[in-house]
Structure prediction request, 373 residues.
Amino acid sequence: MTGNLLLFNLATDADDPVLAFTTQWINRLALHFATVDVITMRAGRLAVNDNVRVHSVGKERGYSEARRAAEFYRILGGLLASQRYEACFAHMIELFAVMGAPLLKLRRVPLTLWYTHRQVTRLLELATQVCDRVVTAAPDSFPITTSKLRVLGHGIDTDFFHPQAGGRLRILNEDADGKFTKTQEAILTTGDYIIQVARLMPIKHQETLVRALEYLPDARVVFVGGTPDEVDSHYEHKLRGLAHGLDLGGRVMFAGPQRALAVREYYRQASVAVNLSPPGLFDKAALEGMAMALPTIVTSSAFDSLLGQFRDRLYVESPEDVDWLVAQLRPLLTMTAVERAAIGAVLRDRVVAHHGLDGLIGRLINVLRTGEP
Prediction:
């Protein structure tokens, strides 16, 4: 291990239902550097290596934006005054990249931004200008054309997301505080349901899957994910109302936000995974479903190389196309478990080969140190 790494992070919390994976990334990166200093927008439960120090600007303490900005510069200034850094890596926090770039350039610390989203903002445009490199998961997961862009793939912890059976209901009950209804218990103990892991937002198109159930009378669905704090809960209420209006109440479960351990167990009891994120969102949740050896339906052509010979069975062109989704789900649900497992095994092998965490970390470190993967 040589050199020191500075890392900007949105949330450093091993229990965060969306961003817990960044703790794994930090720890894997820390194996290749003498020290890693993380400046994070907010911190929760820390589970980092001994050579990692986490500095929060205080969002979890309720600090105002002005105070957080002051904290950022206080922390960054102190670190740059006391430590030499080989590189700086900003993960999904273009704000910190823009704020920190002038000080980093004075110290000749190269700055790399990871960003995977299709939305273009003025802040992202500024970050692209001030960063030395931009890295992303797929060719269409970064919305700005730039010569600075390098495509690295995603980083799925395939040692964690694997299909081996575990202590399923016990873990799930612990995560839900033992508050499952009888209907939910029946769904979970029986297994063999469709799973969609995503935050409850219109862009994730859970409504399409709810409507598909009307034409799949024996199918059941578990939605894992909650409504983000910054998003109005209207969509979640709409989904629940739709399920009730279509008389699907006994076949639909809203599991809410879950820790990674529980998410894995929900996957392990499912038969098929669905990901309806539109093109431009190369959603890692789809890759997690594949890593769990589940046939996974997607609506983005970015997954074509992973689907391979199964594309005709697993691709839906539009995330709003209920009929097409039904047509893809029906044969998958009538397959034997062995037939589904054969498809899932091929998908898992491809995710391990092209989107495993170790491979991504190796490519990322090369970019941080040389500018090229």
Notes: The longest strand covers residues 4-12.
